[in-house]
Design goal:
Elements (H helix, E strand, L loop, with lengths): L2 H10 L4 H10 L5 H15 L3 H5 L15
Helix pairs in contact: 2-3
Length: 69
């Protein structure tokens, strides 16, 4: 299994959608295209929407600017 496949399996095993979204978005080794593919795979596997992954129930965004500094 190559590194990207291992990363996909690791992310798909995360049960909390918000944590998976953070993991995908902050992984500097993933290209934008790879991140989008993994995001879609996760959403399909866990039956969640992108909005459910990107926002907490109170409407707060999951990703914050300080995560990218």
């Amino acid at each position: 299994m190559n590194a990207i496949q291992e990363k996909i399996q690791e992310i798909l095993s995360i049960s909390e959608p918000h944590m998976a979204y953070i993991r995908i978005a902050t992984d500097q080794e993933l290209s934008l295209e790879e991140g989008e593919i993994i995001l879609q795979l996760y959403a399909e596997a866990h039956k969640v929407t992108f909005e459910e992954m990107a926002f907490y129930p109170n409407g707060e965004r999951v990703l914050t600017p300080d995560m990218f500094q």
